[in-house]
Amino acid sequence: MNFEKARFNMVEQQIRPWEVLDPDVLDLLMTVKREEFVPAAARSLAFADVEIPIGCGQVMLKPVIEGKILQALQLHRSDSVLEIGAGSGYFAALLAARTEWVRTVEIEPALVRFAHDNLARYGVENVIVEEGDAVPGWASRAPYDVIVVSGGLPEVPKSLLEQLKVGGRLFAFVGSMPVMKARLITCEAEGRFRTEDVFETLVPMLRNTPPQDTFRF
């Protein structure tokens, strides 16, 4: 398989037509090698417009979804990032390539190992993979400039929002079947948040999701 041609086609035929036009994002998706993070049996699907199962009921998000998230977050080199749901480690690698450091937390032990091994083999040094439930947040390095929730939540917990710095951005998939809102939340001042629904989609729910009375806009 010609991975470079497949990567180019992914960007030009899938991601760009979905209005992901930020040149930094497109360059990032061309640079970080997605095929290094998929399960070996699914390597031929690394650039397909599909969710790739990675075990434990979780998936790698479609490339277009990853592109939309990166474009919405407007990452900066000085950003500190919390990712909830490490998955394969690929999205953490994308985040790490544009930020100071990433702490990615995964509840499934098998995926902790998978993500850690993939990131180590690929040579990513500014990502720490930890095992745990970070849906309520991860206080040890809070507050963060960026929080990314890589699976579905019925609502965004207040405790998670409280770990955003002023000016920080949180991206999450909010709702339930048949459709979720891909939501960007910006902390404009202490206790004040601006919400933008960027697109609609459907992704697997995170384990241990909170009840629906946690926070409302």
Structure description:
The chain has 217 residues and is of the alpha/beta class. The protein is 27% helix and 31% strand. It has six helices and nine strands. The protein has helices at 3-15, 23-31, 63-73, 90-96, 109-122, 158-161, and strands spanning 52-55, 58-60, 80-84, 101-106, 127-131, 144-153, 164-176, 179-189, 192-201. The protein has a seven-stranded mixed beta sheet with strand order 5-4-3-6-7-8-9, covered by helices on one side. A two-stranded antiparallel ribbon has the order 1-2. It is globular. The termini are far apart. The model is unreliable at 213-217 (pLDDT under 50).
In short:
This protein has 217 residues and is of the alpha/beta class. It has six helices and nine strands, in the order ααββαβαβαββαβββ.
Provide keyphrases for this structure.
disordered C terminus; alpha/beta; globular; 6 helices; single chain; 7-stranded mixed sheet; 217 residues
Task: Lay out the secondary structure.
Elements: H1 3-15, H2 23-31, E1 52-55, E2 58-60, H3 63-73, E3 80-84, H4 90-96, E4 101-106, H5 109-122, E5 127-131, E6 144-153, H6 158-161, E7 164-176, E8 179-189, E9 192-201
Parallel strand pairs: 3-4, 3-6, 4-5, 6-7
Antiparallel strand pairs: 1-2, 7-8, 8-9
